Amino acid sequence: MTLQGAEDFRLTVLNPGGRDPEQQFHSVPAPGEDAHPPINFHAFAACAQGAFHRDPRRAIAEDTPVLLLLRGDFRASERALADLKKHGRTVVVSLKETGLHQIAQQLRDRARLSRFIKIVAQADGCIATTPETAEIYQSVRWSVRRVAFIPTSYPVEDQRWNFCLPPDEQSGIFVGTREWDVPSRNHFAALLVARQLCDATGEPVTVVNLDGYKARRLLSELKFPEGKLHVIEKWKSYPDYLRDVARHKIVLQLDRSHVPGQVAGDALLCRIPCVGGDGAIERIAFSRTCGEGRAITEIASMALDLLKNTDLRGAIVSESEQRALEHLSFQAVRSQLAKFFAQFAQGER
């Protein structure tokens, strides 16, 4: 796939029956400029200057290849696939929720599993946003060529999406997870490590709580020192959320869910180190500090070193930015998408 071919490539992402409104990405929107920020699956449409739809008829009208998301009970996705193929569209599918715990929860229902296998077999191919999901698709399709691991992209090359702050304006630890009831998130353990780091360094800790009174009571049991725990309890726009994250020295998590990695993606846009976590973005951009294959004590030790050493934080950020430009930027992922979809056009010829 030549650079020119990648620049000409456009993609429509279809989430049939979803809640997100129709969105055209003729260019990359500035922070706060559009309905949904160009992250997660919206990023695939944004990096390819395509569109994000929930109505199959609008997706058909785009006259481009389609990335069809599988959500809910997969019925709407199954109907959309039939309509798209009837109109001659190239259709590649992906589960919308791709953490291992989410996949297990979705496919434990017999009817849903049957529908999933049928859809994957009938689609032209599959895109996986984690290496683990790629292995699942390959097991269903029995064809490696038609399955690709392509990480979700982040506009790291766009300075409008650079939320970096000077080191002297940064302090504390931002806990990247927030789900108490998902065991693989290890949110409680992350808070315990943050509490220990707070005791050792005096650095404050920030955590997001959108679950109200119940989570507030759980946090109170950890007995952070007076004035050292900052709790964000109101929903914020994505740019405002990133501005909060960017005020910290590190993002800390102990997630073992093998998710695509938005926690690390947020850290990339804020130019701060992400410590812990085994998401795809973590493993690509923050390989020196991610949680893959590391014990909690090792992660805590790395976090302590980073909190104390400005130069070390700078080195991790520089390395992560370079790896992101090579593998996760809009330009890099657009090229990966174009190369993957090119094989279907060649097959048609």
Q: Biggest sheet: strands, sense, closure?
A: 7 strands, mixed
Helix and strand composition category: alpha/beta
**How would you describe the shape?**
globular
The fraction of residues assigned to DSSP E strands is: 5-15%
Secondary structure tally, helices: 15
Q: How many β strands by DSSP? A: 12
Q: Write down the overall mean pLDDT.
A: 94
Q: Separation of termini?
A: 16 Å
pLDDT below 50 for ≥5 consecutive residues: which ranges? none
Order of helices and strands: HEEHEHEHEHHEHEEHEHEHEHEHHHH
Radius of gyration: 21 Å
Helix content: 40-55%
Strand order of the largest sheet: 2-3-1-4-5-6-7
Summarize the structure.
It is built from 15 helices and twelve strands.
Walk me through what this model shows:
The chain has 349 residues and is an alpha/beta fold. The chain contains 15 helices and 12 strands. The protein has helices at 3-8, 40-47, 56-61, 75-86, 100-106, 110-122, 131-141, 187-201, 213-221, 238-246, 262-270, 280-285, 296-308, 310-327, 330-348; strands at residues 12-14, 23-24, 51-53, 66-70, 91-95, 125-128, 147-149, 173-175, 205-208, 229-232, 250-252, 274-275. Strand 8 (173-175), helix 8 and strand 9 form a beta-alpha-beta unit. Helix 2 crosses helix 15 and helix 8 (187-201) runs parallel beside helix 13 (296-308). The protein starts with a helix and ends with a helix.
